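Sanity check. The docking grid for pyridoxal-5'-phosphate depends on where the pocket ends up, so I'm generating a full predicted complex first rather than guessing from homology. Inputs follow.
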Amino acid sequence: MGVETKNKAATAKPAHPNVWVFYEGEFARYHDRRLGLMTHALHYGTGVFEGIRAYWNQKQNQLFLLQPVAHFDRMKRSANVMRMTLPYSTEELVNYTIELLRRNEFKSDVYVRPLLYTSSEEIGVRLHNLDHSFFIYAIPFGNYVEVESGIRCMVSSWRRVPDQALPARAKITGSYAQSALAKSEANEGGFDEAIVLTVDGHVSEGSAENLFLLKDGAFITPPVTDDILEGVTRGLLIKMIKDELNVPVIERSIDRTELYTCDELLLCGTGAQISPVIEVDRRPIGNGKVGEFTQELQNIYFGAVRGEAPKYKDWSIPIF
Ligand SMILES: Cc1ncc(COP(=O)(O)O)c(C=O)c1O
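Predicted complex below; grid placement will be based on this.
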């Protein structure tokens, strides 16, 4: 047993050994960088991170980096909650990300993951008097959840961590243990995704997505005070729903049973993109098929993120 474990560790290979990463102020290969066993963030969840997508457009031979400024601005705010400081300005971070994508010569959809974490190798739970490190890696990435035929969700038995305990508004690595509990409960129970309620029983969000439902001719989404991550995609959709569909958007608390009685439901996020929900807790949503408005929104969104809609040119930065 001991020998087997040792061999496994010795032969463990990183998933993407040769990709370029930006680590501690310089570009390096993924496999040339290792973290110490005692790294504080690994034990205590003391890091803040982002997830950013870049979309490949085959026709234009171009890669479009989506909303990097919004993501790095949010990261700065997350860092502040955790008594950390990003070592670069948003502009510098965007430029390093562009350089990283160029170096890797990606010709596919890509996921970009910046992480600011407590790198001190010492025991002791706290935020103060510790060292921090920063890196960005990027890897080819397809769909995180199904986006075409619609997904089946369950309302999780796990509640969202309240702002009073661990602020969901900050994208803190440790908070994602809660998302992992919810996601695995859903997947292992035969569902695609979890919808998580606040401690007082209102709908908060998916395990890694914000949520919109359509009811009586308006889209409704939980307010930022219902323990959600203030999603970049959520912000884009609020504008798009009003501008493109001419449908009002209401930010208000949502009861659990409104999930069962709405006409359309969708989850959204950088990873999830726009994912139509066709069933919750074994109850069909609307007619049990992808909703008409959701479909239209998704068509416009996918065109925009791939750099095909001049109107949304300012959403992305072309890399090559
Ligand atoms: C918990 C949670 N909510 C919402 C989102 C959606 O946020 P964004 O659209 O900024 O990716 C994410 C995605 O990272 C998330 O992890």
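Relevant for the grid: Confidence is low (pLDDT under 50) at residues 1-12.
Also worth noting: The helical segments are 2-11, 40-44, 68-81, 90-104, 176-188, 232-244, 256-261, 292-305.
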